[in-house]
Amino acid sequence: MEVTARAPGKIILAGEHAVVHGYTAVASSIDLYTVATLRLRPDGEDTINLQLKDVGLDFSWPIQKIKEVVAHLGSPFSSTPTSCSLEIIKSLTALVDEQSFPEARIGLASGVCAFLWLYTSILGFKPATVIVTSQLPVGAGLGSSAAYCVTLSAALLAFSDSVKVDMSQKGWFIFEEAEVELLNKWAFEGEKIIHGKPSGVDNSVSTFGNMIKFKSGSMTRIDSNMPLRMLITNTKVGRDTKALVANVSSRKSKHPEVMGSVLNAIEFISEEWSNIIQSHALDDLSLAANEERLIELMEMNQGLLLSIGVSHAAIETVLQTTMKYKLASKLTGAGGGGCVLTFLPIQLSEAIVDKVVGELESFGFQCFAAGIGGKGVQISFDSSS
Fold first, then answer.
1. CB–CB of 209/189 below 8 Å?
2. Separation of alpha carbons 325 and 302, rounded Å
3. CB half-sphere exposure, 238, CA atoms < 13 A
4. What pLDDT, in 10s, does the model give residues 244-276?
5. What is the value of pTM for the model shown?
6. Which one from 43, 46, 161, 202 is the annotated catalytic residue?
7. In the annotation, is 202 catalytic?
8. Phi, psi for 33 (deg, rounded to 5)
9. Which of 56, 146, 280, 333 has its CA 20 to 30 A from that of 35?
10. Is 285 exposed, middle or buried (0-12, 13-18, 19+ CB in 10 A)?
11. The pairing of beta strand 2-14 with beta strand 128-134
12. Chain segment 179-237, per-residue pLDDT in tens
């Protein structure tokens, strides 16, 4: 028996950076997924194996070795999500380092530690192989680490005593509501190991799907009544999120009244985004009118983000390219590189999309056309393995 789980990535539609200062942001799932397959091994075998297919990394730990490392700290096995102590993180990091982790992939080490923590906390020391693949680029602001933690948590919980699932079900299905809440809490603990102090937005969007509004630590799930599609362009320019956030805070302290007005304007954009996507368009004409409003909001949002210093030359190249085709774009996430969203109206021809993609890719960018606001984490069982 094996279980496969998949969890979507995320984008910020409106409100990035402002959300750090207590204003509203709107985030959405996208139909690009991270997938984890967990296959339990016979009890006679004594290893836990993790294969990260996209980056060519394969890890294997003797269960006895893991037990020795964490035993003196108390077994992490728990039916309720608990935070990983700094002492255990150090012990798990030592386990990962023993695997001759390649220098070029050192940034992924915390993700492997998160795997070991989630695995031993949820399943204990059962032997198994876990294979992870992903459509999400790492470090591009699309919630790749959250989708990783969510999909791992889902696969592990499916074989735990913490949830009740019918393994005879066919196709993709979701956990019960209370179980999804539990899963989200576990994924958040994994995110903490990777990021230190995550907001919880990314894992929540990946877990529950669709869209959420987030303000001052409070999340509200919202249902979109509009079919939305975005072109996501990965500039492949790395950025330092902490530095970008710090620079915005510095501007706010130097120019409190100006920055207050800018952040207030971003707040209004987020609220209007939320209202428009929840409204019911009665016909194609009203749908087109709503699309036009969203396009204008995106343009204004990007202008405000530019004014607070989080754009980048690569982002501006994307904006200028899509503008030639009368398409609106804005950065998503921290900015300073990363990804850019381009709104694709429902009536836009695929020929135009192909032209835009071709031109953007000529700059060395990577493009994905993605549906917005789809389902969250799902699982599927295969009893033939």
1. no
2. 17
3. 4
4. 888 999 999 999 999 999 999 999 999 999 999
5. 0.87
6. 202
7. yes
8. -125, 155
9. 333
10. exposed
11. unpaired
12. 999 999 999 999 998 888 787 888 999 999 999 999 887 889 888 888 889 999 999 99
